[in-house]
Amino acid sequence: MKCVAVSDFHMHDIETPPADLLIVGGDMTDTGAPSQLLWFKNWLAKQPQRHKVWIAGNHERGLEESPEWANKIAEETGTVYLNDSSIVIEGFSIWGSPITPTFFNWAFMADRGAPIRKHWNKIPQGLDILVTHGPPFGCLDLTPRGIRAGCEELLDVIKTMEQPPRVHIFGHIHGAYGRTMLRSDQGSEIAMINASVCDEGYQPSHAPTVFELAER
Length: 216
What we know:
six-stranded mixed beta sheet; five-stranded mixed beta sheet
């Protein structure tokens, strides 16, 4: 399956290449206001992929306050919205969550430690693709100030799973765009992708990330 991943494009009308699956990792808007969600719905509808899966990010306050908007967008675009939930598409399993560690007064956040781990404990074994808005600790999470902003609990859950996800897609930390590999405690290799489109100045400086996912 040919996949394209994007995250953190903040109202920029980016173009994505044709693929079997589009994955959107959140922060499509600036605040999730109704007019911005309408813009996102129109943007999503015109993307050329056969399947489209998306989550919210910390900027989507409107979706946290009015979750019916997410269902409306998904229904009207024929796409899949994930919120601590999963979907199987053409035999490939995907689970997504908008949650990030608490940082100021944004949306879809939980405190580090036990509160946020409750979300990560829901991640199923044997996923093909895991989508979270934020990164795990130490994986493409370095801020311009040299701070590792990723979630320690997310890293621990992924690394200790008997059957960890094959691919983990996230964004949130714009300047850490790129790819790397993470080895689980069981020896499995997990492809880690920070798909942020915008740079730290909120300008679209990074290309959509394209990858192939083979059948098991």
